[in-house]
From TrEMBL:
The active site is at C120 (proton donor). Pfam families: Dus (PF01207). It comes from the Bacteria. FMN binds at Q89, K159, H187, G247, R248. It comes from Marinilabilia salmonicolor. This is tRNA-dihydrouridine synthase. It catalyses: a 5,6-dihydrouridine in tRNA + NADP(+) = a uridine in tRNA + NADPH + H(+); a 5,6-dihydrouridine in tRNA + NAD(+) = a uridine in tRNA + NADH + H(+).
Length: 337
C-alpha cells in the first residue's frame, strides 16, 4: 500500500531527534512527562513500547497487549502543540500476523508511522526468532517488511543493530537499504552485547555510506550512548546520520530536550517525580503495577544532599499515596532548609 499520509521521514527537519521505544518505560505517562519538559523543536518523534503482533491478533490477549499503544488525550494534545510525531513499534516473527496487526492499528489508532523491532536483544525474544534474530534471517525479515508495507498507508521503518553474535553491518545494511522502507534506525551494538560496552558509531558511519549508495533518500538514524543535545548534533555531523535516537540518555537527564542538567534544582526534581506519579495514576490506576515506577526514582532523586536516603525511603513505598507523602515531606524540608 503506498504511503498516502504525511511521511515525516521525508518532510521533517534535520537532524531528526527521537526518543527510543523502551519496555516498561515509554508508556503514555512517561512520554507526556518528557513532552512537558521539551521545548518546541528539540524533539521530533516518540515511540510506543514495543507491541507484540501475535498479541494484537489474539482476541483474548489483545486488551492487555494494546495497553502499549495507549495515547492519552493530554499526551495527544502535547504532541500537537510541540509538533512531535508518534510511531507504533511492533515485533513478532510471522508475516501474516504483521499484516493483520498493522491493519488493526490503522483502523483503531492515530499514529504517524510503524516501526518494526529488529533490534531488541533480550534472549528469550531472540530465541523466539523475533527482533534481533531477524538480522540473521533475511528471507523472513523481507517477508515481514513487505507484509507491513503492503498493509498500511503509514511510513514504515526498522530499528535494528549492527549484528547478532558478531558485527555484520555491511551485509545487513546492504539488505535493509534494498527493502521498501522509509527509515532505518541503527543501534551501534550487536545483540550479544545487550547494553554492555560502547556503541560503535564507526559502524553507523559504514551504514551511512551504504545508504548513500543504495537508497540516498532513506534517512538513517544513529542510536547508542548519546547523553546531550550537543553530543547529538556532533554525532550527526561526524558520522553522517540524519538524526539520533535517545534511549538510556533520558534516564540520565529527563530534561534533555529542555535544558542542561546543571539548571535543574532539587525542587524541580521533586516536582517532576510528583508529576510522573500523577500522570501514571491517571493513565493506569491499578491496571499496571505500581512497582514499575520505582525504576524512575533514581532519575529524579539524585545529585542533591539527602538523595540516597530519600530514594531508599521511596523504594519502600507501595502506593501512589505513600510515594506522594514521602516526596511532599521532602519538599517541605527543602523549603525549610
Amino acid at each position: 500500500m503506498p504511503n498516502t499520509k504525511n511521511n515525516f521521514w521525508k518532510t521533517a527537519k534535520r537532524p531528526l531527534v527521537m526518543l527510543a521505544p523502551m519496555e516498561d518505560v515509554t508508556d503514555t505517562a512517561f512520554r507526556e512527562l518528557v513532552l512537558h519538559n521539551t521545548l518546541p523543536g528539540h524533539l521530533d518523534v516518540v515511540f510506543t513500547e514495543f507491541t507484540s503482533t501475535d498479541g494484537l491478533c489474539h482476541p483474548q490477549g489483545r486488551e492487555n497487549v494494546a495497553q502499549r499503544l495507549v495515547v492519552s488525550e493530554t499526551e495527544r494534545q502535547l504532541l500537537k502543540e510541540k509538533g512531535v510525531k508518534i510511531v507504533a513499534q511492533i515485533w513478532g516473527n510471522k508475516p501474516e500476523k504483521y499484516l493483520e496487526a498493522v491493519k488493526y492499528i490503522d483502523e483503531n489508532y492515530d499514529f504517524d508511522g510503524i516501526d518494526i523491532n529488529m533490534g531488541c536483544p533480550v534472549r528469550n525474544v531472540v530465541a523466539h526468532g523475533s527482533c534481533s534474530a531477524l538480522i540473521d534471517n533475511e528471507s523472513l525479515a523481507a517477508e515481514i517488511i513487505q507484509a507491513t508495507s503492503e498493509s498500511t498507508s503509514l511510513p514504515v521503518s526498522v530499528k535494528t543493530r549492527t549484528g547478532l553474535k558478531k558485527v555484520d553491518t555491511e551485509r545487513w545494511m546492504d539488505f535493509l537499504f534494498r527493502q521498501p522502507l522509509d527509515g532505518v534506525i541503527l543501534h551501534g551494538r550487536i545483540q550479544k552485547q545487550m547494553s554492555e560496552g560502547e556503541a560503535d558509531w564507526n559502524e553507523i558511519a559504514k551504514a551511512s555510506a551504504i545508504r548513500d549508495d543504495l537508497a540516498p533518500d532513506v534517512p538513517l538514524i544513529g542510536n547508542g550512548d548519546v547523553f546531550s543535545l550537543d553530543d547529538l548534533h556532533d554525532r550527526c555531523k561526524r558520522y553522517k546520520t540524519d538524526g539520533v535516537m535517545i534511549g538510556r540518555g533520558i534516564f540520565r537527564n529527563p530534561w534533555m530536550f529542555q535544558s542542561d542538567l546543571s539548571n535543574i534544582d532539587t525542587d524541580q526534581r521533586l516536582d517532576t517525580l510528583l508529576k510522573h506519579l500523577q500522570l501514571y495514576e491517571a493513565a493506569w490506576g491499578k491496571t499496571r503495577p505500581f512497582p514499575i515506577l520505582k525504576r524512575f526514582f533514581k532519575i529524579y532523586i539524585s545529585d542533591f544532599r539527602g538523595a540516597a536516603e530519600l530514594r531508599k525511603e521511596l523504594m519502600e513505598t507501595n502506593s501512589f499515596e505513600e510515594a506522594r507523602r514521602v516526596v511532599e515531606f521532602a519538599k517541605r524540608m527543602e523549603c525549610g532548609a
